[in-house]
Write a structure and sequence with these properties.
Urease, subunit C, domain 1, TIM Barrel, four-stranded mixed sheet, 22 strands
């Protein structure tokens, strides 16, 4: 048995001792009593975590998930290998608002790709449908012509036959007909997130009470925190059980507001990349459906200046949030532990690590202001 000593774990106090067997799997996770020392490889307080899970990623290497066809399978598999190298174990491939035929074709291709999973590739979870039941005034970069009013008929025309391949749906819960759609999705075991929404505090509270369990890219495409109009973020903070997706690039949300959000809700902030098709490619002008997408410094905008997403890796968001907050463990948990909880895995970090290959874990070192990661070995 190989022992790793003086290890820190996100969302767990103190120092830990980790046992790794001859097959390089973690078989023991023991707390170290305060002031004690233990034989083994001294990690000097470095952090150990599972790999990242990204609940909002729209594509990469030139592929936009809503535009997938069977001929894209080789490039899609290459993207999954890139994500693995970037420290991401699993993604909920995000399909923004698009035509019904395009959506169903993309879901079929993702089904094909999922069946081809193998070690060394990021795993495809169920898809994240971001739309089409969104508030027009808050649609952002979503194409207006493909927005739809919430109804069971509209839902079934899009996901019928693919119900088991969807993990998350973002919608505006204040729209007429949204209540029935939310109930149907929850009955199918699909998580629902508030996003691209005009909901006020009361409407958001009602949605959370009905089972909506997340906010998509908090602060963006919704009301912010205002002292006379608190909005959905305040409603989520007061409940304490709603996850808040956060794009921590420093552009979508100012660093000070990102830190405030995490201080208010340290166990609710979930980092997402919101990466678009140019992820893994150089800055410049790229295509997004029929529109030009201008990529500069990791940020993506349409020609009219509308902020559309990023090209930064998920773990870069961890580094940035840690540098802003000084809370390395919370930042690591926000991309590795808390996304799993959104999808229903409530195990503590100790339980998540047991039985996991060490190579499927990340080692984080350095001060919070310059946090670095490598694959654990």
């Amino acid at each position: 048995m190989r022992w790793l000593s003086s290890v820190r774990l996100p969302a767990a106090d103190g120092l830990w001792r980790i046992g790794v067997d001859g097959t390089k799997r973690i078989t023991a996770v023991h707390p170290l009593p305060p002031g004690s020392s233990s034989a083994g490889e001294d990690w000097h307080g470095d952090w150990l975590s599972p790999m990242g899970v990204d609940l909002q990623i729209n594509g990469g290497l030139g592929l936009a998930f809503p535009e997938l066809s069977s001929s894209d399978l080789p490039n899609l598999l290459a993207l999954l290998e890139l994500l693995w190298r970037d420290g991401v174990e699993a993604i909920a491939p995000t399909l923004v608002t698009c035509g019904v035929a395009e959506l169903r074709q993309a879901l079929a291709v993702l089904r094909e790709a999922k069946a081809l999973h193998q070690p060394g590739r990021c795993q495809l979870l169920g898809a994240h449908l971001e739309g089409p039941f969104l508030a027009e005034a808050r649609r952002g970069a979503h194409p207006r012509q493909h927005l739809a009013a919430p109804s069971l008929e509209a839902l079934n025309s899009r996901i019928g036959g693919f119900e088991q391949e969807i993990s998350l749906v973002t919608l505006a819960p204040e729209l007429d007909g949204a209540d029935a759609v939310i109930e149907a999705l929850l009955q199918l075991g699909i998580q629902v997130s508030l996003g691209h929404s005009e909901a006020n505090e009361a409407q958001a509270s009602a949605a959370f009470e009905s089972g909506v369990g997340m906010i998509t890219h908090a602060f963006n495409a919704m009301a912010g925190l205002h002292h006379r109009a608190p909005g959905p973020i305040a409603a989520a903070a007061l409940r304490g059980d709603v996850a808040l997706g956060l794009i921590a690039d420093g552009v979508h949300v100012a660093p000070s507001m990102a830190v405030l959000l995490q201080r208010l809700m340290p166990n609710q902030v979930v980092l997402v990349s919101d990466a678009l098709a140019p992820y893994g490619l150089a800055d410049g002008v790229h295509r997004w459906d029929e529109r030009a997408l201008i990529v500069e410094g990791g940020s993506c905008r349409l020609e009219d200046g509308t902020l559309a997403g990023v090209t930064l890796p998920l773990l870069e968001a961890v580094r940035r949030l840690a540098s802003w907050s000084g809370k390395a463990g919370q930042a690591v948990a926000a991309a590795t532990l808390l996304p799993r909880r959104v999808l229903g895995d409530q195990r503590r970090i100790q339980e998540l690590l047991l039985g996991r290959p060490l190579a499927y874990c990340l080692r984080w070192s350095g001060p919070a202001q310059d946090l670095r990661w490598q694959r654990a070995a």
